TrEMBL record:
<protein>
    <submittedName>
        <fullName>LacI family DNA-binding transcriptional regulator</fullName>
    </submittedName>
</protein>
<dbReference type="InterPro" id="IPR010982">
    <property type="entry name" value="Lambda_DNA-bd_dom_sf"/>
</dbReference>
<dbReference type="InterPro" id="IPR046335">
    <property type="entry name" value="LacI/GalR-like_sensor"/>
</dbReference>
<feature type="domain" description="HTH lacI-type">
    <location>
        <begin position="15"/>
        <end position="69"/>
    </location>
</feature>
<dbReference type="InterPro" id="IPR000843">
    <property type="entry name" value="HTH_LacI"/>
</dbReference>
<dbReference type="GO" id="GO:0000976">
    <property type="term" value="F:transcription cis-regulatory region binding"/>
</dbReference>
<keyword id="KW-0805">Transcription regulation</keyword>
<dbReference type="GO" id="GO:0003700">
    <property type="term" value="F:DNA-binding transcription factor activity"/>
</dbReference>
<dbReference type="Pfam" id="PF00356">
    <property type="entry name" value="LacI"/>
</dbReference>
<keyword id="KW-0238">DNA-binding</keyword>
<dbReference type="InterPro" id="IPR028082">
    <property type="entry name" value="Peripla_BP_I"/>
</dbReference>
<dbReference type="Pfam" id="PF13377">
    <property type="entry name" value="Peripla_BP_3"/>
</dbReference>
<keyword id="KW-0804">Transcription</keyword>
Length: 340
């Protein structure tokens, strides 16, 4: 017959680091390193440890129990880059709104690789943030598992899907591409070049353009893919590459205003008139686009609204307030200027 006292003791025993090690099939040293210094551990290993933490109920670490029981007033914000106002405007608006609500923002720049994002987020979670903001909807599976186990509010921005990790505010990159394609078809153009950065969101916009342009089978479509983040030099180099093919283009569609600015500069250097000889389209309505000569035709999204509303929704959820919409589509607008 079992001893009731022993049974009660087993029921109330607090899970230990060794329990997590046994459940994960890893050494205690590896588990400790994953919990206390996740940056030096593979994201897949951190996720494995967090699964074991969730299974055992271990609460002696910063990633699990600490997050559930205490407020750090810290929000981790992860963006690819801030070297122009593509993301900087959203980040600044987010910081201002979070400060107003009594939160501090920890900003991390991760570039455009999913591996870098996963590694940095694992490190950020060791700082016990009350919530986290991610850019885009494409993440490594290990990172998704890690965030689910961390059990904190997650806000994704600058993209759109009906199935976010938690909450999302953004816009449809595919619909933006479609709108650009329709715009140029309605102008009667038939010979196109697309200069596209390699990141997933830019690729979705590019594919959205091509889907529409290909509805006219006689359209000529050429592509140049450049590494992310794109810059003016890449725009200039890409146009040189396209012109060297000997083909004539009526429009160059770029996945950023920065690329478009480079294309316009190179067109001028080659003796081409924009828009007389070549129409040029950008994306994001960066702060120089309206003041360039010629002013750049582009697609505008409300970058400030994204930041403000992301901060508001995240703070509301942290504080237990009701969130009326988990997914918010802020839309976009085509801004027609001189270049196209």
């Amino acid at each position: 017959m079992s001893n009731p006292q022993n049974s009660n003791k087993n029921q109330t025993r607090t899970a230990t680091l060794e329990d997590v090690a046994r459940a994960s099939g890893l050494s205690s040293m590896t588990v400790s390193r994953a919990l206390n210094n996740p940056k030096v551990v593979r994201p897949s290993t951190v996720a494995r440890v967090m699964d074991a933490v969730n299974t055992t109920g271990y609460s002696g670490n910063m990633l699990a129990g600490g997050l559930a029981s205490k407020r750090s007033k810290l929000i981790a914000v992860v963006v690819p880059q801030i070297n122009n106002n593509m993301f900087a405007d959203s980040v600044e608006a987010m910081s201002d709104e979070l400060a107003r609500r009594g939160y501090h923002m920890l900003l991390c720049i991760v570039g455009y690789t999913l591996e870098s994002e996963a590694e940095i987020v694992a490190t950020l979670l060791s700082r016990r943030p009350d919530g986290i903001v991610l850019t885009g909807i494409h993440h490594k599976p290990e990172l998704k598992r890690l965030l689910l186990n961390a059990n904190i509010p997650v806000m994704e921005i600058w993209d759109l899907t009906p199935t976010p990790l938690d909450m999302l505010i953004g816009f449809s990159h595919e619909k933006i591409g479609n709108a650009i394609g329709h715009y140029f078809l309605e102008k009667g153009f038939r010979r196109f070049a697309l200069i596209c950065a390699s990141d997933p969101r830019a690729q979705v916009r590019k594919n959205g353009v091509i889907d529409i342009l290909r509805t006219c089978p006689d359209n000529l479509i050429s592509e140049v893919i450049v590494p992310a983040p794109a810059n003016m030099a890449m725009g200039r180099q890409s146009l040189r590459q396209l012109l060297a093919s000997g083909q004539h283009f009526e429009a160059v569609i770029c996945t950023s205003d920065t690329l478009a600015q480079g294309v316009i500069m190179e067109a001028e250097a080659q003796g081409l008139q924009v828009p007389g000889d070549l129409s040029v389209m950008g994306f994001a309505d960066l702060n120089f686009a309206a003041y360039n000569r010629p002013a750049i035709t582009t697609v505008s999204v409300d970058k400030v609204k994204i930041g403000q509303q992301a901060a508001t929704m995240l703070a509301d959820k942290i504080e237990g307030r009701e969130i009326s919409q988990q997914v918010v589509d802020i839309g976009f607008s085509l801004v027609v200027r001189e270049s196209a």
